[in-house]
Every structure is written in C-alpha cells, then in structure tokens.
Amino acid sequence: MSVSSLLRRALLVGGLALPVAALAPAASDAPLAAQSAREASGTASGDATASTATDRPDPVINARIREEGTRRSQVLATARMLSDGFGPRLSGSPGYTAAAQWAVGELTRIGAARAWLEPWGTRGPAWSLERHSAELTAPFYLRLNALPKAWSRSIAGTLRGTPVQVPSLATALDRTRWAGRLRGRIVMLGRVNELVDTAARLAPAAERWTAGQLDSMSRLTEPGSPRTYWEDYDEWEEMLQARRTMLTWMRDEGVAAVVEPSGHELTLLSTQYNSAVTPRDANLPAFTVAREQYRRLQYLLDRGAPVTLELALAIREDLTDTVGVNVIAELAGRDPRVAGEVVMMGGHFDSWHAGSGATDNAAGSAVAIEAMRILVAIGAAPRRTIRLALWDGEEQEDYLGSAGYVRRHFGDHATMRLLPEHPTFSAYFNVDHGTGRIRGWYLQGNAAARPILAAYQAPWADLGATMLSIRNRGSTDHLAFTGVGLPGFNAIQDELDYETRTHHTALDGPGFLIEDDLKASAMVLASLVYHVANREGLMPRTPLPAPRAK
Hey, what domains does the chain have and what are their CATH numbers? Predict the structure, then answer.
C-alpha cells in the first residue's frame, strides 16, 4: 500500500546492475486507431460478456487447486524468502534487485512458461543504507532508535550539535518565522503530544471483518472515492509538491540535518524525503526517531537542558542504475482464438526499509507466485494467458511500476490514447493489504462484474471469500488499470494488525504472517484467474475515462 494511503489512515497517536538479457523489450507505442462503439459507450470491448449461464466454476479444477494449495503449499516459504532472505525491497535498492532476480528464477523453476524483468521507465539512482547512528550524548547518554528517511544524503563524519525544535515548516508563514535562524543546525521538526492517546491504546490490536461489516459493504450502492485515477494521483502529487517546497527552503536556509518523530506510537514508521524519481538535490540527512524517545528530547529542550545529539549516516548511490523493473511471468493460453488475451494478477513487490516488507507486500507477492505455482502443478490449461506481475515503485511513487507498465502496453492515462493490447485485456486482480485472507473484491464501480465474480467465488465461501463491494479502493496498483478503462479489482482482506502494527513499520517482518490465511488467499486467487481466463468472453468494462483536462 502506497504512501498516499497514510493520508487516509488514523495514526495511533492523538544497487546491483541488471543483466541486459533479463530485460524484456518495450511494447509497441503505436496508438490504437479506433475503439469499438461498444467500448467507447462503456460496454465490453471485443467479445467481452456480462454474466451468462456459462459462468459456472469447474468443480474438478477447484478440487485440484484445493488439494495442491492445502497439502503442498510453498506460500509461507516464498514470503519468508522475499522478506528475511533479501531484507527491505526499497525501489531502486540492491535488495529489490536481488529479490526480483530471485523471483524470476523461482517462477521459472515452478514452471511458468516465461518469466522476466521488464522495464517500466526511469527512476533516480539506486540508493541504499550503509550505516547510521543517532545518539543523545548530553545531558546523559541514550542510543536513539532511529531510521534514516529514504533517499537521505550522507553526513561527512559525525554531526554534533544542540537541536532546535521547530513545530512546523509546512506553511509560508511558518518558514518566514524561522528564516535565517537554522543554518548549521539539527532541526527537530514537529512536536508530539505529552501523553499517548488513551482511546488508541484501548482499541483492539487485531481484527477480522465481521459478518455485519461485510454485509454493510456489500449493500453499498455508490462506489465513492477515488472516482478516477487522477483523483488518487493528485492527492499524492500535492503532498510531494508540499514536501519539495519545504525541502528546498531548508536546503537554502542551510539546515544541517532533520530529526522527526515516528508517525507510529509503538515502533518506527518508514518515511521518505522526495521520491525515487524526483531530483534529490534538496534532500538532507534526515532521521525518524521512536516517538517516546522524541518525546524525551522534547521534554529536555522545553526545560532548557543542555541537549547534544550526534548523528552519523552513510548511504550508497549507483548513478548508473536508473532503470526501474517489474517482475512478469506467464502461463500461456491454450486456445488459439483467445490465447492472445490476458488475465492478470499480482501486487507490488517493493517495500519500505524499516522492516523487511513481509505483510506489505511480500505476502501479496507470495500469494500471486503461489497461485501461479498451483495452476502449473495441477496442469491447468487456461484458454487465455494468465500473467503475473510484481510491481516496482508502488510504495514510493503511488503505483509507478504498474502505471508505467500500463502506459507501455495499454494506453496513456492523461491523453487516453490507447494501444493495440487494450482490447485484448480481460481483468487485473490485485493483492496488497497484508497477511489477512481474501474475503472478496472491491468492484471499482463495475457492477456488471458482480455476478461473474460471485459465481467463481462461491466455492470458496468456507475459506471466507464471500464479499463483493461496489466500492472504489485507492492507493494501490489496480488503479493503473482502471485509469485507462480496464477492469481492475483489489482484494478485500482481513485487516488483522496490518494498520495497527505492521503497515510501513519496523515490525513488518515474517513473524506477523499467518500461513493459513496466505494459503486460503492463494487458492482463491488461483481459482479466480483460471475461471476468468476460461470464460466465454472478456470481463465487462466500465465507461472509458475522459482524457485529463490540460
């Protein structure tokens, strides 16, 4: 789940160079000359069909999926390898590259017809941490639980000084107030509440969806926000622009380093300055500090104590490594009439750097890999091609890797100039909300898809997959597809302690994975993509979005 989702989240407080041979060639950039009248009016393109009597699940295939997914599952081992085996998979880091190369090898090993690394575009130079420390040395010693922000700059040697606390630099008035006062200083940016919010402490730490909650979601009649790709994107871009403005001001004012409180009361929350693709000339050495320790520093400064901090930070950048890649694999379609049509599944592969990215999103990546493994193992022969995608740049860029893939294969979100592959696409199914089992799917306003997915999902009710909601869900990769008028669905999953403990935090390790839930999700996903790939027509579509107003 991407950074912009944090705007809708209530806080708990009140490089390795890629081998050229591994890169797939770019898709054709030729625009689709004309769209069918049916698609332009919002109905299905080509041979797309709404629900028919043929949308019945195959009990034999489902029995084989259940047998393979229950008795010979590899999903937990895959998730552990992606997280603990490679560490954080920050976009453009050596960890991401190594994990992506491993995933291609693993998908090949389990029998995918093809597996490759496919470029989505250009990002900033590869960045990774080498070493760092943050210490309070006066009035007493304390080693701070601190994490550098992604894409921070290095510190030459050790930076030592008395910090100055600045409540906010968010507005022009804030910046005017502090102009000329921060040169060479360590800035403690922001204040925290003196006491932890009681209501947050008493809230349940982990929950599954109740029957009543699922029923309420299923009865919704309005999709809600975000209604368009650009509504979601603009929220993210607005946040990035505000950050760039503040960073540029701090650089010009000569700020030496920045220390901020974690956004999570119990652990470190990963954060960034700027992004993986924007210029980094304004980036500063910057740390996120555990909230209770930040609270202690704040208390000492408020009392006038002689506070001294010592900061050290060394990062590595590879200026030659600027190509972002997604992991792609296929199970080839068998029907020559429709084998060129595609059903896709996947989730984002990149992660933040505080933890090892187990629940966000080694879990979803492992579920997709396991779904592919199950289908290969049982000898499934879908009519259409099933394509797996593990996306780069979702966390740091609001689905940059998937959006780049869509622009290369299907069309441009801004101009709505469509490419020849657009009418051959059926649907994309996205898994990106932790270790919780799949309970159903957000339909993104695609009401015609409901009876189709309901039929295919019905045999898995015993595993909890019973829900379909008309709701829109933002901040993850399916929006890259719906943004050009293609069917994209995001999994509804049990939240568990995803938001309360692991999401983007230092606690996001494989100890918080639930094997039975991962197994259930992989079986549900395998069955769904198989049946969608085998149905009579493509999945129905919603109306094409309008081009973005200039």
Answer: 50-123+322-493+507-534 (3.40.630.10), 126-318 (3.50.30.30)
